[in-house]
Specification:
Elements (H helix, E strand, L loop, with lengths): L2 E5 L3 H13 L3 E5 L2 H10 L4 E4 L7 H12 L5 E5 L15 E4 L5 H13 L6
Parallel strand pairs: 1-2, 1-3, 3-4, 4-5
């Protein structure tokens, strides 16, 4: 079973993503900041990370940078309702940016592609 590290601070969105991904057969572990990311990597090795940043907080950017410091080959998806991240070069460490919404199908499809096919596609 593939493990996904989910970095999401909003509990409603976190629950929706976690439930949807688990229903698709993935194991989901949670983190909300760079310290928790380091802790998770100390316990287990996720196969992919989903980061849901907010433009007014730096914690998610620090978590993204921590992931790439630990494992630069780990696929990362930025999943956010804020459209600013495609233009912010600091988030180009991610493999793709997906706009969040009530439908998780696009996210699940990209997760499947990145995990199963190993395809690394640009934004």
């Amino acid at each position: 079973m593939k493990t996904i590290l989910l970095i999401e601070r909003e509990s409603e969105q976190q629950t929706a993503c976690q439930s949807g991904l688990e229903a698709s057969g993935y194991r989901v572990v949670l983190a909300s900041n760079s310290r928790e990311v380091i802790r998770v990597f100390g316990i287990e090795k996720p196969d992919l990370a989903i980061v849901s940043p907010h433009p007014l907080r730096a914690e998610e950017l620090q978590a993204l940078q921590a992931i790439k410091t630990i494992d630069e080959s780990l696929p990362i998806i930025i999943y956010s309702r804020h459209s600013l991240f495609g233009d912010d070069f600091r988030y180009w460490l991610a493999d793709c940016v997906i706009s969040s919404g009530s439908n998780l199908d696009v996210l699940k499809e990209k997760v499947s592609v990145l995990l199963n096919e190993g395809s690394r596609t640009p934004f």
